[in-house]
Every structure is written in C-alpha cells, then in structure tokens.
Amino acid sequence: MKYYARFAPLCLAGLALTAPLAAQNGGQVAPKSCLPQGFFPGPATYKSVEQLPDGRVTFRLCAPAANQARVTSNDIDQAIPMGMQPGTQRGLAMTKDDTGLWSATTAVPVPADTYRFNFEVDGARVPDPQATTFSHERVGTNSTFETRGPEGDFQTYKADVAHGAVSRIDYWSSALGQKRQAYVYTPPGYLKDGKSYPVLYLVHGAGDSADSWTSVGHANYILDNLIAKGEAAPMIVVMPFGHTPDRPNATGGGNMLDNTDFGDDLLGDLIPYVDANFRTLADQHHRAMAGLSMGGAHTLRFGLTHPDTFDYIGIFSMGLGLAGPDDVERYENANDAALRKAARDLDLVYYAMGKEDFLYGSVAPTRAMLDKYGIKHTYHESGGGHTWINWRRYLADFAPRLFR
C-alpha cells in the first residue's frame, strides 16, 4: 500500500494531463507517439525487423527527435548498400511517419542467412533498441537478424538436434602479461560423457572479436547440425581473441596480419590452458587451426608453420602477397624448414576464397607457394566476396574433413 500511495499521484497526474491535449492542439488530438507509454512499458507495438512474404525485409526504428535515419550493414550490399561503388551512398534511407517511427524496406529479397546491421541516427551508429541478439566487433556492437529459407538451414538452431554448449573463458597470458578471453564450444554430450575430444582453434577476422564465430558465424549450430547428421566428428572448438594490444618494442604486436604476439599467446598460453582445463586429445593428430581474413593470416603464420602442433589447416579469404612482391619470399625464408615438414606431416590444408573477394589476387601466389613445397591442398572457390555468408559455408565444408 505504501508503494501504491507513493506512485498513485504521479499516475493520476499523468491521466489528468491527457484531457487538455486536444484543446492545446486546436481541438485536434495529437498523433500517438511510437515511444513506449506508461511507467513500465511493454514490448514495442511494431517489429523492428520483419521478413516479408516476398523475401524483402522491412526495418523500423522509433526516434521521433531524429532528423535522419538509415539502416547500415556490411553483409548484404545488394540490399543495403555499403557505399563502396561509385555513385552509391552507404546504407538504406528511412522515412519517418507522424508518430516518429522510421521505416525502410529493401528493394530486393534478402537470402536466407544471418546478418549484422545497425541504425545510423543523425550520423551516430546505434544498435537496434528492440534487438535481442547482438554481435561484437573489434570496436562497437551490431544487432543481428536472420532470414529463413532452406539455403540457410545448415546454420540455424533446430529443436530436434542435440546441442553443445558455448562458454567464455578468461586465462592469463604470460606472453602478453594480461588477462585474455576466448570462447569454447563443447559438443553434445561433453558435459556428462567423460570422453576426450579433438580440438579446432578457429580465429575471427580483423573487424571482429572473440564472440563473432558464435554470435554471427553460428559455428556452434553448424557443428551441432553436422554432428547430428554424422557428417562431422564431435570436437571442441576454441575461438580466441585475434587482436593483441600495442606494446612498446613488441614485434608485430599491433600488426593484424603478422602478429607475433598472437602466435606467442596461442602456442604458449591458450593451447596449454585448454589442454589442462578441458578433456582434449592433446596431440598433433587431434588438433586443427583455421581462420577467416585476419584469422587466415594467423593460420598461415602460426598454424601451417607449426606442423608439430596442428595436423589440419583451414585458410578462409586470405593469402600471401598482400605486402608486396617480396611478401611470399620473406614468408618462405622465415619458415622454410617448417614448410618442408608440413608437406610431410599435415593431413589437410584447406584453402577457400570467393571470386568477388577483394583479396582474390592473393590466391595465385599462395597456391604457388604451397605447390612449390609439395603441400597438397584442397582449394574451394565460391562465388561472393569477403563476407560471413561465405565463411559459414567454408566452415560447414571444412569441419567434416577433420579428425577422420
């Protein structure tokens, strides 16, 4: 009763204010605002992301005080322009109605998949206030949404499939002198079966963070679905943070593509921590490494060149030759003995690239280097570019080849 007595005057005062509104507006009732009403507002009356029957997607944002709003994404250039083509503007322009609700609909259908997006409100990047799923980048946060259809079925949650667990671990890096973070997927049954499992170390790209392979990459659902169908061996997947801090006098600490700090942390701290705290098959034959973009560079430099540690290698959307014509020669000179050993010892080198990827030019010099050393490799060339649309599919193609 004390609680009611305290807040009742405020509620009554709010009701009393509604009567004069018509008089203050010349006898006309002001349009209802899209903003939530009441002391404890419920869910919004609109859908912030809605897939239409024809496959197009409508986005909505309540921002009555905004002067301009757009939808932005780096994942679906055909539907939400990235602004990289001449004469195009970044994002999808939105229009505002009388209630302050902004909306925009894509001009074309959005293929079934998972996408990151944000709103840009008067120049400021804003995650969807009504979202319930998010994906962290190296800096900043995205909202995510899914469009449904059979072509995206391989990476969706299924109620009739056994699911693994994803945990976040903190560990001390003696190489960096700081606390580090990683995400770990353990397969269905791990929490109660007492078995030991092989391990895949899976690294994100330059714009991403340690959670990206699960929050937008859906690596956990991809593995769940493959394992359920008997197409992939049950495995642990460790997803480290691929960035390291700039440090005075460190070699490559701030260099995203040739970061020796990352390699020192991975090999000297993270792998020993995982082997000590999870039930792993802790030998070369049961260990794999893969990564996309920057993570592919890490895999080239610290996976392919450590055949005593890893038996399976996956390089997605990355290659050599990006730093100039001498890049491949420097790589070979620095890793000659390890590459010769890799040719003898590795069970799999998997290399995947999209034809429209801006790094496609690195394919030829990288494959030439592999051929020079006699490193047999499986090359998968897809359509599309440097996007999660490809990277999920590369993982779904790569994982069944491991630990067989």
Keyphrases for this structure?
404 residues; 8-stranded mixed beta sheet; disordered N terminus; 6-stranded antiparallel beta sheet; 24% strand; alpha/beta
How would you concisely characterize the structure shown here?
This protein is of the alpha/beta class. Helix content is 26%, strand content 24%.
What features would you describe in this structure?
By secondary structure, this protein is an alpha/beta fold. Helix content is 26%, strand content 24%. The protein is built from 10 helices and 18 strands. The strands form 3 sheets. An 8-stranded mixed sheet has the order 11-12-14-13-15-16-17-18, sandwiched between helices. Strands 3, 4, 7, 8, 9 and 10 form a 6-stranded antiparallel sheet that branches. Helix 9 links the parallel strand 17 (348-354) and strand 18. The chain is globular. Mean pLDDT is 89; it is low at 1-25.
SSE map:
Blueprint: H1 2-18, H2 20-24, E1 49-51, E2 57-62, E3 69-72, E4 92-93, E5 95-96, E6 101-105, E7 113-121, E8 124-126, E9 134-136, E10 141-147, E11 165-173, E12 178-186, H3 190-193, E13 199-203, H4 212-215, H5 219-228, E14 236-240, H6 260-277, E15 287-292, H7 294-302, E16 312-316, H8 327-345, E17 348-354, H9 363-372, E18 378-382, H10 388-398
Parallel strand pairs: 13-14, 13-15, 15-16, 16-17, 17-18
Antiparallel strand pairs: 1-2, 2-6, 3-4, 3-7, 5-6, 7-8, 7-10, 9-10, 11-12, 12-14
